[in-house]
Write a structure and sequence with these properties.
Layout (H helix, E strand, L loop, with lengths): L5 E6 L2 H10 L3 E4 L12 H10 L3 E5 L11 H13 L4 E4 L10 H11 L3 E4 L9 H8 L5 E6 L6 H12 L10 E4 L8 H6 L4 E4 L14 H14 L1
Parallel strand pairs: 1-2, 1-8, 2-3, 3-4, 4-5, 5-6, 6-7
Family: Belongs to the CutC family.
Pfam families: CutC
InterPro entries: CutC-like, CutC-like_dom_sf
């Protein structure tokens, strides 16, 4: 590959962010409350991290566990407050009760982002029809990435789907970068790189002590080295 693979690390606070940068991360996903699989952090958390590191920061827009939008206007207000604080990249994704993309909610929130780049997160792995979701979102302003394990159960289950979708790169609905995360291990990386996938997302893998402990610069560096060596 002509450019090195992207390594994105989940950060809960400044300590995580500084360690991730020291280990060689390219980008951070900012969340709070991993017991709920990652919710929107406070503006204060964002500004503290923004002052501490010079990495790209993608901020989660998700106010409750699950993939329903809930009160869409609350999500819009959170996005507005974060944008006012300087956030310019985001992570979001809303499904309806049938597992289809909640297009009205997506359009409402994306309008507030006003062209900011954003990732559609692992809600795609819970979607009733992944292909239909991608095609419905095709052309939505700012969408440049899908964070996916290929299946709700993680990369072990989803690897065949990830490889099949990578082979469709450039088709309508498949122009966006695939960012693989969710049960991702280093032994998955060679097959993913060989398929042309060049972006990787780690959370627990960056925390040897688990989610109660901080990001380890050494753990991140292990991933950085592996990606650079195998690319």
């Amino acid at each position: 590959m002509s450019e090195r693979a992207v390594l994105e690390v989940i950060a809960l606070g400044v300590e995580d962010a500084v360690a991730a940068q020291a280990g060689g991360a390219d980008r951070l996903e900012l969340v709070t409350d991993m017991a709920a699989d990652g919710l929107t952090p406070t503006v204060e958390t964002f500004t503290g991290i923004r002052a501490a590191v010079d990495l790209d920061l993608r901020v989660m827009l998700r106010l409750a566990d699950g993939f329903a939008v809930g009160d869409v206007e609350r999500v819009v207000r959170a996005a507005s407050e974060l944008r006012d604080a300087g956030a310019d990249e985001f992570v979001l994704g809303f499904l309806d009760a049938d597992g289809s993309v909640d297009l009205a909610a997506m359009e409402r929130v994306v309008a507030e982002l006003d062209g900011c780049r954003w990732t559609f997160h692992r809600a795609i792995d819970r979607a009733a029809d992944r292909d239909a979701l991608r095609k419905q979102l095709d052309g939505m302003p700012g969408l440049d990435t899908y964070l996916t394990a290929g299946a709700a159960g993680g990369v072990d289950d989803g690897l065949p789907t990830l490889l099949a979708e990578a082979a469709r790169d450039g088709e309508p609905g498949y122009e966006q970068r695939v960012l693989v995360g969710g049960g991702l291990r280093l032994d998955h990386v060679p097959d993913l790189l060989a398929a042309g996938i060049d972006a990787f997302h780690i959370g627990g893998a960056a925390r040897p002590a688990g989610w109660t402990g901080p990001v380890s610069a050494e753990a991140v560096s292990t991933w950085r080295t592996a990606l650079d060596t195998r690319a």
